[in-house]
Design brief:
The complex is a heterodimer of chains A (about 325) and B (about 260). With about 325 residues, chain A is mostly helical. Chain A folds into two domains: about 60 residues; about 240 residues, no CATH class. Chain A is about 85% helix and about 0% strand. In chain A, helix 2 runs antiparallel to helix 3. The longest helix of chain A is centred in the last third of the chain and has 40 residues. Chain A starts with a helix and ends with a helix. The relative contact order of chain A is 0.11. By secondary structure, chain B is α/β, with parallel strands linked by helices. Chain B has a domain of about 140 residues: 3-Layer(aba) Sandwich (Rossmann fold). In chain B, about 40% of the residues lie in helices and about 25% in strands. Chain B is globular, with a radius of gyration of 19 Å. Classes of the chains: A mainly alpha (about 325), B alpha/beta (about 260). The interface between A and B is medium-sized, with 15 and 28 residues.
């Protein structure tokens, strides 16, 4: 009935204005309800506006534009639910961090468990982080020599590799490798522990899973990521040095000389701070997705994929925000 | 001793428990029977605090377990244990480490004192002896058969001598001979620990073998509760159906279903 009513409006241009007013009013009512948390009612009120946008599409089809495929209240409900789920997930993720922090402060996890995780996360990741850092430094130096040699700017190669590795590539690529190697495995392990009731079993034996399983991973991941980042930066500079000096025949001093002059403490700390924050992100997202796993083996696969994708996106977004924020802070401080 | 009052729980649109009331006496073995997926395991998980009810309460020795959370809840369930349907052994540890887990975490269950490795090893050996798993000391759970995993999980309970033991479908998925061994172990454990046991199962043979009292759960409530002898005489189609699975000669049943 509503559909025909609005279709009528579309056919009679003189009524469109009225239809529009009605539509905006409907939206206002629905958004007010949504604010009050009455989503079911908000949805029911939001339906006509959807229908109306459809009729507008139909009228403009006279001008050879295809109307978008129409659907209904269902897609709106899906969008609303998806947003709600996102907000809920972020809330749950933060509450997990809080609970783990509380459990850790109340009674720190055993040193043995933390050491085990430090080894699993840190030492085992060294080869993959080394290869990533080294090859990135290698191509970065090679590319900059190829690109800059005709402009006579090859002397900036060492400085460029160092600054790029320290501020951006080192932390981000290390975060990506650790997410793929450690985060995914951690999420899958916790997920399979959930679906085989091992986490429940821990609890029935009066052991807090946050303290026993999650806290050691949080602590080890947060400590290890800055160290791995530094390692990756060093490997990158080393890779760049090798190719510049031994392949392109650059003088060792041309590559290394400008580094101590132009690289500031700030560049180094940017890498460390980013590594630390990425470490927190990787561990918390992997543990959160792992603990929220449901639906058997397929659920474990889904949770792991989600955890990796979400971490990648979170790292990229956070990296951008950190780059801006750290530079603004640095500029402000240096002006004082 | 365990008093469950007006317990309600729903998952999505499914009302699993609907005002369930149940009293469990100290030292008895109560078996809760009913068809799969009607909330038997959900009830167990409420008793040990893994799930919170929508409404209602569970009191254990006067402590309202349903009001507790965090460290208080963990403290309250320290003398309880649960045997999971899939055994839930920690697959990153050997059988021995699994069984020793509680003792390494909490120390001596009676005194709370830290135990030496030798004391722990003695207790673990004893528990392994009770369930007859001597050959599996150093094995990983993935190397064990279903029946052996169940026995290892049972040893993990026996080792800390819980006062209340919950069994979730202890014989499901096992062959009849191993299932009988598990039944025997449940009886033995009860005698050994003097514990209150709650067994959830749809295996009527097991229920009648181990139970002091049997309760039928239906529509989210306890429909009937009685001793084994009385229970099988109750005029309820569900009980008849469940009891029928073990009291009928399968050959006669087949004849009836296919030729009669």
């Amino acid at each position: 009935m509503i559909l025909s009513q609005f279709a009528g409006v579309a056919e009679r241009p003189e009524l469109r204005c009225q239809g529009h007013t009605r539509e905006s009013r409907t939206w206002r009512r629905s958004s007010k309800m949504a604010q009050k948390g009455d989503f079911a009612r908000a949805e029911s009120f939001a339906i006509p506006s959807k229908v109306y946008s459809m009729t507008i599409g139909n009228t403009s089809s006279n001008n050879n534009s295809n109307p978008p495929p129409l659907n209904n209240n269902h897609s709106l409900r899906q969008v609303t639910m998806a947003r709600l789920r996102l907000i809920l997930s972020v809330g749950e993720w933060m509450s997990l961090i809080l609970n783990v922090a509380k459990a850790t402060i109340r009674r720190p996890p055993s040193v043995k468990l933390v050491m085990q995780q430090l080894y699993d996360i840190g030492v085992s990741s060294l080869p993959v982080v080394a290869i990533t850092g080294f090859s990135t430094g290698l191509v970065l130096a090679a590319q900059s020599i190829y690109q800059l040699s005709d402009k006579g700017l090859t002397s900036v190669t060492g400085l460029m590799v160092t600054k790029a590795m320290m501020t951006e590539l080192g932390p981000v690529l290390t975060a990506f490798m650790v997410t793929g190697r450690v985060g995914a495995a951690m999420c899958a392990e916790l997920g399979s522990m959930v679906v085989t009731e091992q986490i429940d079993a821990l609890q029935t034996m009066a052991v807090n899973p946050h303290r026993y399983l999650i806290a050691p991973r949080f602590i080890a991941g947060t400590l290890m990521m800055p160290l791995l980042t530094v390692f990756s930066i060093v490997m990158g500079i080393f890779g760049g040095y090798l190719i510049s000096v031994y392949y392109f025949g650059m003088a060792s001093n041309t590559y290394m000389g400008p580094i101590p002059i132009h690289v500031q403490h700030f560049d180094f700390f940017t890498g460390i701070i980013k590594g630390l924050i990425f470490g927190i992100l990787i561990m918390t997202i992997a543990c959160y997705k792992g603990l929220r796993t449901s639906g058997g083996a397929a659920g474990v696969g889904r949770a792991t994929t989600n955890s990796v994708v979400i971490t990648y996106v979170a790292v990229l977004v956070t990296n951008f925000l950190l780059t801006v924020a750290l530079n603004v802070i640095h500029d402000t401080l240096s002006r004082l | 001793m365990i008093k469950i009052t007006n317990l309600w729980k729903h998952f999505g649109k499914i009302q699993v428990l609907a005002g369930l009331n149940l009293d469990i006496e100290e030292g008895e073995t109560l078996v809760i029977v009913g068809r799969s997926g009607i909330g038997k395991s959900v009830l167990l998980k409420h008793i040990i605090g893994l799930l919170k009810p929508d409404q209602g309460s569970i009191d254990i020795h006067g402590t309202r377990i349903t009001d507790l959370s965090g460290p208080e809840l963990l403290k309250a369930i320290q003398h309880m244990g649960m045997l999971f349907q899939g055994s839930a052994l920690f697959d990153s540890m050997t059988v021995e480490e699994n069984i020793a887990f509680y003792l390494t975490q909490h120390g001596d269950p009676e005194t709370g004192k830290k135990m030496s490795d030798k004391e722990i090893a003695e207790r673990v050996d004893y528990a392994i002896g009770v369930v007859g798993l001597q050959e599996a000391h150093k094995k990983m759970p993935s190397e064990l058969s279903g029946g052996m995993r169940k026995r290892a999980a049972l040893a993990r309970l026996i080792v800390y001598r819980p006062k209340i033991v919950l069994y979730d479908e202890p014989t499901t998925g096992l062959d009849p001979i191993i299932a009988m061994q598990i039944n025997e172990l449940i009886v033995k454990t009860k005698e050994e620990l003097k514990a209150t046991s709650i067994v959830v199962t749809h295996d009527m043979f097991s229920a009648l073998y181990v139970g002091d009292r049997l309760a039928l759960i239906h529509d989210g409530k306890i429909a009937h509760i009685a001793g084994p002898d009385q229970f099988i005489t109750i005029d309820d189609p569900m009980i008849k159906q469940l009891y029928g699975t073990i009291s009928l000669d399968p050959r006669k049943l087949k004849e009836k279903n296919h030729h009669g």
